[in-house]
Structures are given as structure tokens and as C-alpha cells.
Specification:
Number of domains: 3
Transmembrane segments: 21-42
Radius of gyration: 23 Å
Protein name: Glycosyltransferase, GT4 famiily
Number of helices: 17
Low-confidence stretches: none
Number of strands: 13
Shape: globular
Helix content: 40-55%
Strand order of the largest sheet: 8-7-6-9-10-11
GO molecular function: transferase activity
Distance between the termini: 59 Å
Order of helices and strands: HHHHHEEHHEHEHEEHEHEHEHEEHHHEEH
Mean pLDDT: 90
Strand content: 5-15%
Keywords: Membrane, Transferase, Transmembrane, Transmembrane helix
């Protein structure tokens, strides 16, 4: 009992993060809408901020209706505030967040991917440059996080005469963008749909005997990753049978000391703990895993879960997660379970029967995802792009080409984009 109380105290920031999420999803939309109506009396800008907060909590019919009524005012406020921001030279690193995958020709626009919501804001500080880019290129936006009711996303509706494509892994985000019925075109893909299957073509058909871990959690030290739930589930399973687990953390977030204290408090569990692995080391752990799990309640599309699919490892997604494309967690790739169902599943001593890599190659590999984008952007004529004017992109973890040559490489990408950014480094 004492250890349980200690664990709750050590993991208190994780419990607070869970509470914030549950309150946000349950009463958040209504509280923020009430604040919106009250703020309309004295401060319209504050009222619009509350409206967007309501939609980020959860998309509701009332919120959507009010968003459509107020969209122009939201965008106008955003650009008005941007005029007060000093337009410092944009960092060269920004070009790592923009990737030219098709060059323009006299008869056809090229194609540029733009990654991370913070990059959108940097670009939108200078709308004239954005217009120059739109003159020659179609743009595909890849936001950082689920919850698209953000000024730096909605501001792209200001370029109303030009279609701009936006990745939407989460159904709520797809619905929000679709309901605007404007120039933003939602695509049902996300950052997890760009795993480089060529880079994961090692020995992926491992025999069951080679699997060292029953379950692996890939996380970091941000409380949203809910590592405390991982320990809680393992305790419940271990009460019935032994289980071997791996916890792999990127060295990011504020709770590393808390996680290592939890490990100390749970020395009776069989957990191998890894921090800051490189890609090859992470792939080795995934290859040795029977299942890879994701326990977050809300985040972005999540790449590591689908890297496991590329390595032929079935996945388990926590039911109720917001952000991951649930269509990609299916009979071929894994399971969507509640915490209680995960515990029951592992008590039942499951050996994996799913081999998800082939499904992943066909549906969510970088090649399959690029075909979806090209068809949406160029229509049925997209196959004419294959050849010297087109290159696949991958997320590994930053955006990159699947391979480089004289036409498509980091320097060529920088030089091509630099023509549009006269104030760049």
C-alpha cells in the first residue's frame, strides 16, 4: 500500500495531465463557449480565443457554427497581430521544415510540404512571400498536433483563391477543415503515414522465439505519454503471470526523474529501460517486441507506433486516444483497447498472429501516402510526375527525401526555396 501511495505521489504530474484532458473533453467545450459569450461584451479578441479553445477541447456543432461566422475576424486579428512582430531573417533551419518534392513546369505547379505548426507561423509573418510560393507550388501542410482550431492554421484560408492541402490524421480535425468548405483541402493522412519502409527492410520476419519483450512502450518524459499507466498495467498483469516489458524514452520532457523513481519503486517488474536510442537501436528493440503500445490520450499522428508496423510488429492503441488515425489500427495491424482490455489481453498469454508490414506497405508507407497526396493534388494525371520531376518524402524523424541525387538534395531544396525568401539567411 505504501509503495502504491508513493507511486501516485511521484506520478502526480501525470495524473494532473490526465485530469486536464478529461475535463477538457467533457466540460471544456461548454465552459469556453460560455466564456466566449461573456467576453463578447467587453473584448472581441478574447472572445474569439475562447471560441478556438472550445473547438480544440472538442469539436461541437455549436462551435463549428460560430467558427464559420467568425472565421474572417479570427484571420484578420491574426494578421493584424503579426504586423506588430519584427520580421527578423528567417533561420536557415526553416528550410528543413519545407521540402520541394516536385518542381514546377510551364504547365504545372510544383509541390512543397510544410512541416510543424510553428513553421506555418513563421511563414505567415510575410504573406507576400507565401503568395509568391503559391504562384509556383501547391502546398501540403503537416501540423504538429491534433486540434486544428488554431489561428496559424485557419489563417491559410486568407489565400482563398488557391487550394491548400492539409494532413488530418484525427477525424475531428478532418471534420473541422471539411466544414469550413473553403480553400483548405483535408487529406486523411498524418506524420505516421510517412515511415521509410526502405530504411526498415532489415530482417522483419523474426520467429516468435526471437521476441524478447511481450510489450514495448515508446515514449518520452512529457506527462502526456502516461508512463504511469504502463506501470499500473504491468503490476496488474504480473499478479497473474510474468511479463517482460521494454520502456524506450526519448530524452525530452520534464519527468525523467519521476520515471526513474517509478522504475525504482517497481523493481519487482521485468522492465528494460532505454533512453535516447538512435534509429537503429530503436528498430532492434521493436524487432524484439511482440507488441508495441501507445497510451497517450491526445497527441499528433504518432510516428513510432507505425514504425513498429513497418517492422512487422503488431500495435496496441489506447481506446479514446485523440490524434492517431484509428483507421490504421485494424484487423491487419493491431488492436484498440481500453486499459482493462489490455490487461485482460496479456493475461490471456497472447502470441501475435498479425504480420502488419505488408498492409503497411500497401496503405501507409511513404510511397502509398505520396500517391494519395499526388492524386488529391493533381488528379488522375499524377502518374506523369514519376521521373525526374518528383521525389518521395519520409519522416525520419525530420522530413527528408527517401534518397538524394543531383536534382533532389538538401542543398538543392535550400537553393530552390531561397529564391522566394529574400530576407533569409
Amino acid at each position: 500500500m505504501f509503495r502504491k501511495i508513493q507511486s501516485i505521489y511521484v506520478a502526480r504530474h501525470y495524473y494532473f495531465a490526465d485530469l486536464r484532458f478529461y475535463l477538457s473533453r467533457s466540460i471544456g467545450p461548454y465552459v469556453f463557449l460560455a466564456m466566449y459569450r461573456f467576453a463578447l461584451i467587453y473584448n472581441r479578441s478574447a472572445a474569439l480565443a475562447y471560441l478556438l479553445a472550445s473547438l480544440r477541447s472538442r469539436v461541437t456543432e455549436t462551435g463549428l457554427t460560430l467558427l464559420k461566422v467568425n472565421l474572417q475576424a479570427i484571420v484578420a486579428n491574426y494578421f493584424s497581430a503579426n504586423k506588430l512582430v519584427s520580421k527578423n531573417p528567417k533561420p536557415s533551419r526553416m528550410f528543413d521544415r519545407l521540402l520541394v518534392v516536385a518542381y514546377p513546369t510551364p504547365n504545372r505547379k510544383g509541390l512543397v510540404f510544410i512541416k510543424f505548426t510553428e513553421t506555418f507561423h513563421i511563414l505567415l509573418l510575410d504573406p507576400t512571400t507565401v503568395r509568391r510560393l503559391l504562384r509556383d507550388y501547391h502546398l501540403v501542410l503537416e501540423p504538429s498536433w491534433s486540434g486544428y482550431a488554431l489561428p496559424e492554421i485557419l489563417a491559410w484560408t486568407a489565400f482563398a483563391q488557391t487550394k491548400i492541402f492539409i494532413e488530418c490524421a484525427e477525424k475531428e480535425d478532418f471534420r473541422l477543415i471539411s466544414e469550413l468548405k473553403g480553400n483548405l483541402v483535408p487529406l486523411r493522412i498524418g506524420s505516421g503515414d510517412w515511415v521509410d519502409y526502405g530504411a526498415t527492410s532489415a530482417e522483419v520476419y523474426q520467429p516468435l522465439a526471437a521476441k524478447k519483450y511481450d510489450i514495448t512502450l515508446v515514449a518520452n518524459f512529457n506527462p502526456i505519454k502516461r508512463i504511469h499507466i504502463f506501470f499500473r498495467m504491468l503490476n496488474k498483469i504480473t499478479a497473474h503471470k510474468p511479463i517482460k516489458a521494454a520502456l524506450v524514452c526519448a530524452n525530452f520532457g520534464s519527468q525523467r526523474l519521476a520515471v526513474e523513481k517509478l522504475l525504482s519503486l517497481h523493481r519487482h517488474l521485468e522492465i528494460d529501460y532505454f533512453v535516447d536510442l538512435n534509429t537503429a537501436q530503436l528498430n532492434e528493440i521493436l524487432l524484439e517486441s511482440k507488441y508495441v503500445s501507445l497510451l497517450t490520450l491526445k497527441e499528433g499522428s504518432n510516428r513510432s507506433l507505425f514504425e513498429a508496423v513497418a517492422l512487422n510488429c503488431p500495435i496496441i492503441l489506447l481506446a479514446g486516444n485523440v490524434g492517431v488515425n484509428r483507421d490504421n489500427v485494424n484487423a491487419a495491424t493491431g488492436h484498440i483497447f481500453t486499459e482493462k482490455e489490455i490487461v485482460r489481453f496479456f493475461i490471456g498469454n497472447p502470441d501475435p498472429t498479425k504480420h502488419p508490414r505488408n498492409w503497411g506497405i500497401e496503405h501507409i508507407s511513404h510511397g502509398a501516402s505520396m500517391e494519395k497526396v499526388l492524386q488529391a493534388v493533381y488528379g488522375f494525371d499524377y502518374r506523369t510526375l514519376y521521373g525526374q520531376f518528383f521525389r518521395n518524402k519520409v519522416n525520419s524523424p525530420e522530413m527528408a527525401y527517401d534518397y538524394e541525387d543531383a536534382l533532389f538534395n538538401r542543398k538543392a531544396n535550400h537553393d530552390c526555396l531561397n529564391r522566394y525568401f529574400s530576407d533569409c539567411d
